[in-house]
C-alpha cells in the first residue's frame, strides 16, 4: 500500500481545462501484486476535442506572458515536485514497479528538466539579419509552435512527462497529454502540483484511457501543431502516418538495440559497473539499456565472471521492499517476451552463467547469457528485461560492423583506454547517443534522441526547446526615407 503524506496527489481522474473528471471506466494494476490499485476514466473522442479546445484557448494568454513569467511558474513547479519527492516516488513505484530508490531518482531526474527549461525560457531569442535592401530590416523571431500532443510510455512516467512538457511550456505552448494507461497516476500527480504552482487551467490537460481513440483524435486535429511521442517504432510510424495530412511537427523517441562494447584494454571494473547501470536499471525496461553486450576475446572470460557475480547478488522483489534492486516487470506480455527470447537463445547454443531463481509470475529472473550469436532473437529485438547476452568478438572492425548492423540507432556504449580508438569508434558508431566509459547517458543538459528507426528530433539540452519553436522571418520595410 502507498503511504502518502499528501493523499490529494493520488487522483483517479482526467483533467480538462482545470476540471477533474472522475469515472471508474478502467482499472490500473499494481504490477508487483497483480491487484487493482485504482481506476481511471476512458476518455472519448469528444472529450479529447474538448481538451484540444481548452489548450487552444489557454494558449492565447500563455504565449503572451513574458519568458520570465513562464520561467518563474516552472521553477515553482520544480520546487513543488522536489518537495513531494517521497509521495511521487510511492505513486510511481506502486503503478510501475521499479524500486523506491530508483523512483526517487526519477523524481529528481524529472524535476531537472523543469528547472533546465525554466532557465532556457529566459534565453529564447532571435536575430536581426542584415538586409540587402537599405530601407529594410529582417528579424528572425522565435514563436511557440502551438498546441502540442504529448504521448508518453510507462517505463519513466514522470521523467517522460517533464522532458516533453517543460520545454513546451517554456516556449509558450499548451499541452494535451496522454500518459500510458498502465501508469496514469504519476502524470496526474504532476498536474496537481502544476496547478498549485499557478500554471493556468487549460495549459496542461491530461487524458486517461485507451490510446486508440484519443490518439486518432489528436493526430487528426488541425489545431494540434506538434506531436511528441516516446514508444515503439511501430507505433511511432503509425502516428507519423496519421499526422501527415496536417503536417504536424514531430518528435519521435522510438525503439533501440543498444550495443555495449568492451575492448581488451578496458578498465574491467568500470566496464562491469557501466553494464550493471545500463542493463539492469528499471529491470532492463529502458530504451537505452544495453541490449547486446560485445566483449573482446582477451577480456571476455574475466568480464563474464565479474558481471555474473554482480547479477547473482541482485535482489528481486516488490519495489517498496527494503533492498530490492529489481522490481516486477510491467505486465504478463513483458514476461512472455523475455521468456521467449531466453528460450530461443538457449535453444541456439547460449549458456547461462548465473544462478536460476524461483520467482513469482510478475518477476523476471536477471541473468547473463554467454555464447550469444547474431541469429538469436535477442540480437535483433529489444528484450526490455534483465537479460544480458554476451557476444564474443575478435577485432575492432568486427565489433563496429555488428554494433551498426541494426535498423535502430538510439544509444551505444563502449569501453576503452586507447585515446585513438575512443575517437575512431565514437565517430563510426551510427547512433544518436554514444557513451565512452560510462553507462549513464541521460541528463537534462544533454541532447537525447536517435537516428534511423530510433526516431526524429532531440529532447533535453538547448535542442529540446527548439523542438517547440518556429522561426518567423519578419521583413520590415519603409524604415528610412528613400
Write a structural description.
The chain is of the alpha/beta class. It has 2 domains: 7-254 and 454-473, 3-Layer(aba) Sandwich (Aldehyde Dehydrogenase, Chain A, domain 1), CATH 3.40.605; 258-443, Aldehyde Dehydrogenase, Chain A, domain 2, CATH 3.40.309.10. The chain is 39% helix and 20% strand. It has 15 helices and 22 strands. It has helices at 45-62, 67-83, 85-96, 100-121, 159-171, 185-197, 211-220, 233-243, 268-280, 297-312, 332-347, 377-380, 396-404, 419-428, 461-466, and strands spanning 14-16, 19-21, 26-29, 36-40, 127-129, 137-144, 147-151, 175-178, 204-206, 224-230, 249-253, 258-262, 290-296, 351-352, 367-370, 387-393, 408-409, 411-415, 433-436, 451-452, 455-456, 469-476. The strands form 6 sheets. The chain has a 7-stranded mixed sheet, sandwiched between helices. A 6-stranded mixed sheet has the order 9-8-7-10-11-21, with helices on both faces. Strands 5-6-22 form a 3-stranded antiparallel sheet, with no helix packed on it. The protein is globular, with a radius of gyration of 23 Å. It starts with 13 loop residues before the first strand and ends in a 6-residue tail after the last strand. The mean pLDDT is 97.
Amino acid at each position: 500500500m502507498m503511504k502518502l503524506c499528501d493523499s490529494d496527489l493520488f487522483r483517479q481522474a482526467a483533467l480538462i481545462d482545470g476540471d477533474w473528471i472522475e469515472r471508474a471506466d478502467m482499472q490500473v494494476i499494481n504490477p508487483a501484486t497483480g491487484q487493482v490499485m485504482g481506476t481511471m476514466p476512458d476518455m472519448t473522442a469528444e472529450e479529447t476535442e474538448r481538451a484540444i479546445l481548452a489548450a487552444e484557448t489557454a494558449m492565447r494568454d500563455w504565449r503572451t506572458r513574458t519568458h520570465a513569467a513562464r520561467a518563474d511558474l516552472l521553477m515553482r513547479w520544480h520546487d513543488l515536485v522536489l518537495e513531494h519527492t517521497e509521495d511521487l516516488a510511492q505513486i510511481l513505484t506502486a503503478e510501475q514497479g521499479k524500486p523506491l530508490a530508483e523512483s526517487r531518482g526519477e523524481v529528481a531526474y524529472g524535476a531537472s528538466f523543469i528547472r533546465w527549461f525554466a532557465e532556457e525560457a529566459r534565453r529564447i531569442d532571435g536575430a536581426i539579419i542584415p538586409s540587402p535592401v537599405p530601407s529594410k530590416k529582417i528579424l528572425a523571431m522565435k514563436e511557440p509552435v502551438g498546441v502540442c500532443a504529448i504521448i508518453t510510455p510507462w517505463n519513466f512516467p514522470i521523467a517522460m512527462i517533464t522532458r516533453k512538457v517543460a520545454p513546451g511550456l517554456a516556449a509558450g505552448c499548451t499541452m494535451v497529454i496522454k500518459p500510458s494507461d498502465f501508469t496514469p497516476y504519476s502524470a496526474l500527480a504532476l498536474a496537481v502540483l502544476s496547478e498549485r504552482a499557478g500554471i493556468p487551467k487549460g495549459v496542461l490537460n491530461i487524458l486517461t484511457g485507451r490510446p486508440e481513440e484519443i490518439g486518432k483524435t489528436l493526430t487528426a486535429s488541425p489545431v494540434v501543431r506538434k506531436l511528441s511521442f516516446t514508444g515503439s517504432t511501430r507505433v511511432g510510424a503509425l502516428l507519423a502516418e496519421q499526422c501527415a495530412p496536417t503536417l504536424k511537427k514531430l518528435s519521435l523517441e522510438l525503439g533501440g538495440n543498444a550495443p555495449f562494447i568492451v575492448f581488451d584494454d578496458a578498465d574491467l571494473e568500470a566496464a562491469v559497473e557501466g553494464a550493471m547501470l545500463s542493463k539492469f536499471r528499471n529491470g532492463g525496461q529502458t530504451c537505452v539499456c544495453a541490449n547486446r553486450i560485445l566483449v573482446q576475446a582477451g577480456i571476455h572470460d574475466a568480464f563474464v565472471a565479474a558481471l555474473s557475480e554482480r547479477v547473482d547478488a541482485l535482489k528481486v522483489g516488490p519495489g517498496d521492499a527494503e533492498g530490492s534492486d529489481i522490481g516486477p516487470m510491467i505486465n504478463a506480455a513483458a514476461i512472455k517476451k523475455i521468456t521467449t527470447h531466453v528460450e530461443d537463445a538457449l535453444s541456439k547454443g547460449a549458456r547461462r552463467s548465473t544462478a536460476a531463481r524461483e520467482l513469482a509470475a510478475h518477476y523476471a529472473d536477471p541473468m547473463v547469457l554467454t555464447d550469444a550469436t547474431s541469429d538469436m532473437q535477442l540480437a535483433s529485438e529489444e528484450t526490455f528485461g534483465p537479460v544480458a547476452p554476451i557476444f564474443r568478438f575478435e577485432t575492432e572492425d568486427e565489433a563496429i560492423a555488428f554494433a551498426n548492423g541494426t535498423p535502430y540507432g538510439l544509444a551505444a556504449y563502449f569501453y576503452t583506454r586507447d585515446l585513438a580508438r575512443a575517437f575512431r569508434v565514437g565517430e563510426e558508431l551510427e547512433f544518436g547517443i554514444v557513451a565512452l566509459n560510462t553507462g549513464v547517458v541521460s541528463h537534462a543538459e544533454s541532447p537525447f534522441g536517435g537516428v534511423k528507426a530510433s526516431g526524429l528530433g532531440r529532447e533535453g539540452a538547448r535542442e529540446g526547446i527548439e523542438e517547440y519553436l518556429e522561426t518567423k522571418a519578419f521583413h520590415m520595410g519603409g524604415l528610412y526615407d528613400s
